[in-house]
Design brief:
single chain; alpha+beta; Outer membrane lipoprotein wza fold like; wza like fold; six-stranded mixed beta sheet; palmitate; transmembrane
């Protein structure tokens, strides 16, 4: 009777909320979902919404391709117009039709001039003077020189060749074979090509991040994403800075799992079922099979696809705010009591810094409560038994 009363008191009056526990139970997480701090009754609460992991949501999350670099910098159609810059080394070859010209002799009808574009953007050519090279294409420079020689040389012609491009350098540093100033050639070069010139990455693509800095713009993306999504392999521009860093992707698993810890991916991809298995799975005696949760800051495009624009706007009005890179909090729930969870769980990707929480079953708290209330009863029973013996 005492044990039955304890269960009724726990379940009906208090819901075992006063019992010591390891994090919230499923009902607590579900109860707070979609509410503002005012509705919950707690200030400074982070509003979030819950999405069930099913065939549709798993497909949307899996199919989403991050395009951080493409959105910010644009892939472009190549290098565009390549112009001469300060510090560039040029070879100017001047041809003349006669052997008695300014630049020709009986032995040769051409002269080669090696030039370096000076800080003011100019370089000197005999009988022409100071010529402005900076900001001009090779053809424009050729035409400028040719025009100046028409009334001075014998039927002149000119070729301007780029020997080195100090003005077209890209800085590549970090976790690469050798940090270097990489000169760009006259055709389009992408991030992957420039990193290869610097010796390539020193770590696996799935744990290597690439940061592109261009002026006041900065974008960071996983090297794996650049390889798998060609639109992220953007063309670099002179003056760009590329930083390559090794940052192993990890997730954290907490709650009624056999191990609570942070775990490295150690692979190209990890799905939700694999992540749970890497922690030893859920505790058979404690886990709520309906309460596997993934706490994540998600891309706004994904959230709007899952919730719809109207619901997303409602959550913003409730105080849902992004993190430093524009992602919003969301919680995914996997109900492992459903047979198809073993299928959809294979297609739901875990992302770096995810927190996977295995909720404990409500019966665990009831058991704890019975243990707590049973201790003094046991002591009292022992005293009575001793008294009877006397």
């Amino acid at each position: 009777m005492v044990r039955l009363n304890a269960i009724l008191i726990c379940a009906v009056l208090t819901g075992c909320q006063a019992v010591p526990g390891e994090g919230p139970v499923s009902s607590d997480i579900l109860a707070d979902a979609g509410k503002s701090g005012y509705e919950i009754g707690r200030e400074n609460t982070v509003p979030y919404e819950i999405v069930d992991v099913d065939g549709r949501s798993a497909r949307l999350v899996s199919d989403y391709v991050a395009t951080a670099l493409n959105r910010r910098f644009g892939i472009g159609g190549g290098v565009g117009q390549v112009v001469i810059g300060v510090g560039d080394q040029l070879k100017v070859t001047i041809f003349e039709a006669g052997s008695d010209g300014l630049f020709s002799t009986a032995d040769s009808k051409q002269t080669n001039l090696d030039l370096v574009v000076q800080p003011d953007g100019t370089a000197a050519i005999p009988y022409v003077g100071s010529v402005k090279f900076s900001g001009k294409t090779l053809e424009q420079a050729r035409q400028t020189i040719l025009k100046q020689l028409l009334n001075k040389a014998v039927e002149p012609d000119v070729i301007v060749t780029s020997m080195s491009t100090a003005s077209r350098n890209v800085t590549v540093s970090g976790a690469v074979g050798r940090s270097a100033l990489v000169p760009l050639n006259l055709v389009g070069e992408t991030i992957n090509e420039v990193i290869a010139k610097a010796g390539g990455p020193t770590s696996q693509p799935y744990e290597t991040y690439v940061t592109l800095v261009r002026g006041k713009k900065t974008g960071t993306v996983l090297l794996k994403s650049i390889i798998e999504n060609p639109s992220e392999n953007v063309h670099v521009q002179p003056g760009d800075q590329i930083f390559v860093t090794r940052d192993p992707r990890t997730f954290t698993i907490l709650g009624a799992a056999k191990q609570n810890k942070r775990i490295e991916f150690g692979a190209n991809d990890v799905n939700l079922l694999e992540a749970v298995a890497m922690a030893g799975g859920g505790s058979d005696a404690a886990v709520d099979m309906k309460g596997y949760f993934v706490f994540r800051y998600e891309e706004p495009d994904v959230i709007m696809s899952l919730l719809g624009t109207q619901r997303f706007d409602e959550m913003l009005n409730k105080g849902m705010t992004p993190d430093s890179i524009g992602r919003y909090p969301i919680v995914y729930r996997l109900d492992m009591s459903k047979p198809d969870s073993l299928i959809v769980g294979q297609t739901f990707p875990v992302k770096s810094r995810d927190v996977i929480y295995a909720s404990r079953h409500p019966a665990v708290d009831i058991g704890k409560f019975l243990t707590i209330v049973g201790r003094p009863i046991g002591i009292a029973s022992g005293v009575i038994n001793v008294a009877d013996d006397l």
